[in-house]
């Protein structure tokens, strides 16, 4: 069972796509958001949840005060689950893009304050680096990027201007943090 950890929707359950996704555990989300909220105020933030799956990261951000979340998911069934979760939770401040992360980040569009990238473990480091570099023009000033990978994966190839901040391991999961430098 996947639930929202805290905020206005705290304790509410999320539907999970029948296969092909790996929702971020509650323990990891709780630690991740504790760190994120110590770095920045989520109130009104524009959030991007790449490789969204059930949307656990983006919905957690909305529950904690983010102003809008965009969910990018290439699998149609997972995108349908995202729509159902947004409706069930009462979050109208969402956009759900049923397309690949690479296609989404390279298109023109709004800028994001927080980006979550939790690709399937099968996504190669090279593919992820290409997506992260595609984000360069979509990052707001002081944007925070959070990348979740298997613990045996290498640190992500950050785009120019993004400074690596920290890495933390939680069992077989690693979370990497980067922030757009003011001069980036």
From TrEMBL:
For region Disordered, the annotated ranges are 1-23
Q: Which residues form a coiled coil?
A: none
Q: What is this protein called?
A: 16S rRNA (Guanine966-N2)-methyltransferase
GO BP annotations listed? rRNA methylation
Enumerate the GO terms in the molecular function aspect.
Answer: methyltransferase activity; nucleic acid binding
Superkingdom as given in the UniProt entry: Bacteria
**Biological source species:** Lentzea atacamensis
Task: Kindly list the residue ranges recorded as spanning the membrane.
Answer: none
Enumerate the UniProt keywords alphabetically.
Answer: Methyltransferase, Transferase
